[in-house]
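User:
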Amino acid sequence: MRKITPVMLVLLLVASLMANIDIAQLETTEVVEDTGARSGADANLVAITSPKETVCEPTCRNELFVGQDASFEVFIQNSGDTAITELGYKAQVWNADGNGNPLNLAMDSNGADLEWDNPDVICDDTTVCDDQSLAAGDVFKGGKTMIQYGGSNAVWTPIAGIYVVQIEVYSDQDVDAINDVQQLSLIHISEPTRPRLISYAVFCLK
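Assistant: Predicted structure:
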């Protein structure tokens, strides 16, 4: 038994060293993979905060009404580890079926596509873009921001129907396109409820 004990100790020591090497290698590989997934600039459309998605269960909330102007408000973040120096965004309104599936790009009363495409949100030309950079990890404008088009807020004046609102951010620097697009389904546009006018005729009978 005394002769076997040193051999066992040596084997246990070797096994322990091998186990430590394997664990270290695995940990190193995991860190490299995580770093690679996060490297570069990553424009991330975190959320659309306005308009809000219509929810019907059974009565509907967050409906828009005919003629009621709607703007587009979003959160945009740089989720990468490199500054974004070029950025654009685009808002679209699609006609939808009852299940919230987009069918075709909707049009306004003049027959123009309901699309607001602004490629000059961030750029190096101060005469064109108000912002020249979005640092790694930062939120654009520090929080919620309105979609701009032609120097002012993009505005949609809806007619009756069911729509999908889609907003997309884009950049040639973007390393992850998966988080660039958000959709709001089942935006119901209905006529506002108006009070009925009732006329009374008063007769005096004698």
